[in-house]
Amino acid sequence: MAKPNDLLAPVRRIGILAKTQLHAAAPHLADIGSWLQARGAEAIFETATAALAPAANLQSASKQALATEADMVLVLGGDGTLLSMADCIGEARSPIPILGVNFGSLGFLTEVTLPELRASLEAALDGRARVEERMMLRASITRDGQPFARHIALNDVVVTKGARSRMIDLSVHVGDEFVTRVKADGLIVATPTGSTAYNLAAGGPIVAPSMDALILTPIAPHTLTNRPIVIPAHAPVRVQPIMDDRDEVFVTFDGQQGFELQGRDQIDVMRSETALRLIKPSTRSYFEVLRTKLKWGER
Question: How are beta strands 72-77 and 98-102 bridged, if at all?
Answer without folding.
Answer: parallel
